[in-house]
Amino acid sequence: MSSVIHSEEGRAADDVAAVMRMARLMLATVVRSAAHVDERLTPRQLRVLVLVADSPTAVTPSAVAAALDLHLSSASRLCDRLVSAGWLDRQESPQDRRNFILSLTGDGSAVLAGVMAYRRQTFTTILEQMTPGDRSTVCDSFDRFADAADDQPSRLDTEMFQTKAAEESNGDDVSPLTTLQRGLNEQHKPVGR
To answer: Which of 36, 70, 114, 186 is the most buried (most CB within 10 A)?
Structure first.
């Protein structure tokens, strides 16, 4: 009985290690996609662009703060940087003149389209190296994994972009390549150091 428990624990650890490896590779693709299109684009800024593009309702700095779990002042500075970069436009809200509604500019839409095209091409290249059966298995497994993750009450979609460095710097953004390198360094630290 004891060997069965140990083998189940070992299998669970192997499963988690496989998911962690996949997460690292996915994160690397996400970060590279932003840097490939524009090296100024940070993961957090990308998240705001996606939020504005995908939202069925008007997005305000308050909505950005809530979605990214930031203080309103940090979210406002983040939006200011996106406006300064020419990726977001800010208009006074007709319902509340103290608030602003954010929208993508043409340049912001182009940046977002470039990021998504890079990701699609990267994932297509990887999938093309697999057999049709393996592709089907992977895609079905990803769908089931995403469904299981959607059932979790956590903020999985935003936590992946919030790094310790960004929190320590009071919400200031860190370059995507720095974020990736820090994540890779954390995963490859020797045990006991």
So the answer is: 70
